[in-house]
Amino acid sequence: MKDKEEIMNELSKLCVKIGIFFSNCDGVFSPSEREFLEYYVQNVDSNLKPTFDAKSLIENEIINHSSFDEVVSVTNEFLSRFDENERTAIKGTLAVLIDKIIKVDGEIHPNETKYFEMWKKEVI
């Protein structure tokens, strides 16, 4: 198993990929969604800070915008390296992220809800 810092970096990058996907489900990546995602990624774990520039990673992900299938695939690949208890905890963290990113702009778009339900079926 990789060291904790490397795992947290991978988790942070996964959070960016997921956050960008769900932020764009309504066709708009709002300033409130961007601010929330930047804050979230920089504070996934209070003891460890990402060793990469979160803002640059977010910009790159916006440009390369992942598909739903890519988000599910990368999530499941990441989760496959952990035991069941760890997977359950990580899935819970990711579900909270998705829920918050959907709600942070004050509007819940039908696509956000649809893809969240699909994500739960594919990942959780």
Oligomer: single chain
Sheet of most strands = none
Average pLDDT rating: 88
User: In angstroms, what is the radius of gyration?
Assistant: 14 Å
Shape: globular
Q: How many helical elements?
A: 6
Order of helices and strands: HHHHHH
Q: Considering DSSP H and I runs of 4 or more, what fraction of the residues is helical? A: over 70%
Poorly predicted spans: none
What is the end-to-end distance? 22 Å
Number of strands: 0
Strand content: under 5%
Structure, described:
The chain has 124 residues and is an all-alpha fold. It is built from six helices and no strands. It has helices spanning 4-23, 31-42, 54-64, 68-79, 84-103, 110-123. Helix 1 (4-23) runs antiparallel to helix 4 and helix 5 (84-103) packs antiparallel against helix 6 (110-123). The model has no long low-confidence stretch (mean pLDDT 88).
How is this structure best summarized?
This protein has 124 residues and is mainly α. Helix content is 72%, strand content 0%.
Q: Any descriptors?
A:
single chain, mainly alpha, 72% helix, 124 residues, globular
Q: Can you lay out the helices and strands and say which pair or pack?
A:
Elements: H1 4-23, H2 31-42, H3 54-64, H4 68-79, H5 84-103, H6 110-123
